[in-house]
Write a structure and sequence with these properties.
Order of helices and strands: EEEEEEEEEEE
Shape: elongated
Oligomer: single chain
Strand content: over 45%
Largest sheet: 11 strands, mixed
Distance between the termini: 57 Å
Number of strands: 11
Helix content: under 10%
Structural class: mainly beta
Length: about 160
């Protein structure tokens, strides 16, 4: 009998700061986490079948706050990457922005699922302070035939970049 695959996905809270001409401190803060247990209830059609290959979190699983801008026209972008603790290369994790949050300025991009790799990539961009920007996660690649039973763990790192 094959054993279930289990992993945990903490949402990393990370703050990066840059000094702007007005001595404002641009920062990003995240909240939330996703821990998922994959077991017999995730089999496609019961004993002897494969696992449902994709799992998706709640659409409000995580939240991002951007603060310290100099106003509604102070532009920034958020980059995303993953930092693996124990991860299988057959897994692909995705993230998407599911809300605009509140605050001054604008926000755009990041509303379709994007694969998160170990290299920084642009997630979304905006201007001004925004809080409560909701994010959702999806993982693909579950299979009893290719993924060893283990606990898998990765963190997603968000970096705020001040842009012109």
């Amino acid at each position: 009998m094959k054993r279930p695959v289990a992993f945990a996905l903490p949402l990393l809270t990370l703050v990066f700061c840059w000094t702007q001409p007005a001595f404002a401190v641009l920062s990003i803060a995240t909240t939330g986490s996703w821990s998922l247990t994959v077991d017999a209830t995730d089999l496609v059609a019961g004993a002897g079948t494969d696992l449902v290959s994709t799992q998706t979190s709640s659409s409000t699983q995580g939240s991002i706050d951007i603060t310290g801008t100099t106003g509604s026209t102070d532009n920034w972008r958020v980059d995303v990457k993953r930092v693996d603790t124990t991860w299988d290369s057959d897994f692909t994790i995705y993230v998407r922005r599911t809300g605009d949050g509140t605050g001054t300025g604008t926000i755009s991009g990041g509303t379709t699922f994007q694969a998160v790799t170990t290299t920084d990539a642009t997630f979304f961009s905006g201007a001004g302070d925004r809080s409560g920007i909701d994010v959702e996660f999806k993982i693909e690649g579950f299979s009893v035939s290719t993924i060893p039973v283990d606990i898998y763990d990765t963190s997603i790192t968000y970096t705020i970049v001040d842009t012109p």
